[in-house]
């Protein structure tokens, strides 16, 4: 249930915790003067978890499967990086042996 802010004609400001279906208060709870509901800033956002992505709230089984998938794809990437670095190293040693 939301908290509504009110202000009376005498200048009192107060908050009232009430259901959305309830009628707004018409009388100040402090002095009994006529009161009206005022616009408020509302509640701030509350972020739970380590970030702001939908995957931050996934189940543990999903996270385990995702880490296993990313681990296998990183293994593939590291193997291709090793091949590329060996080609570069082999290419530079071939050129030095040819020039020497």
Structural class: alpha+beta
The amount of helix comes to 40-55%
What is the H/E order?
Answer: EEEH
The backbone outline, from C-alpha atoms, is rod-shaped
- Overall pLDDT score: 73
Low-confidence stretches: 92-97
- Intertermini distance: 83 Å
Q: How would a textbook summarize the main sheet?
A: 3 strands, antiparallel
**What is the overall number of helices?**
1
Beta-strand percentage range: 15-25%
Radius of gyration computed on alpha carbons: 33 Å
The total beta strand count reads 3
Strand order of the largest sheet: 2-1-3
List descriptors.
100 residues, alpha+beta, 3-stranded antiparallel β-sheet, 40% helix
List the helices and strands and how they pair.
Elements: E1 3-8, E2 13-17, E3 35-38, H1 60-99
Tell me about this structure.
The radius of gyration is 33 Å and the shape is rod-shaped. The protein has a domain at 3-38. It starts with a strand and ends with a helix. With 100 residues, the chain is of the alpha+beta class. The longest helix is centred in the last third of the chain and has 40 residues, at 60-99. It is built from one helix and three strands, in the order E-E-E-H. The chain has a three-stranded antiparallel beta sheet with strand order 2-1-3, with no helix packed on it. The chain has one helix at residues 60-99, and strands at residues 3-8, 13-17, 35-38.
């Amino acid at each position: 249930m939301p908290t509504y802010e009110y202000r009376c004609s005498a200048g009192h400001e107060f908050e009232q915790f009430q259901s959305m279906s309830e009628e707004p208060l018409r009388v100040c709870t402090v002095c009994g003067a006529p009161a009206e509901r005022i616009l408020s800033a509302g509640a701030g956002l509350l972020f739970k978890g380590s970030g702001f992505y939908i995957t931050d709230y996934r189940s543990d089984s999903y996270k385990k499967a995702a880490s296993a998938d990313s681990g296998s794809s990183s293994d593939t990437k590291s193997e291709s990086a090793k091949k590329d670095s060996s080609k570069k190293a082999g290419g530079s040693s071939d050129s030095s042996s040819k020039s020497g």
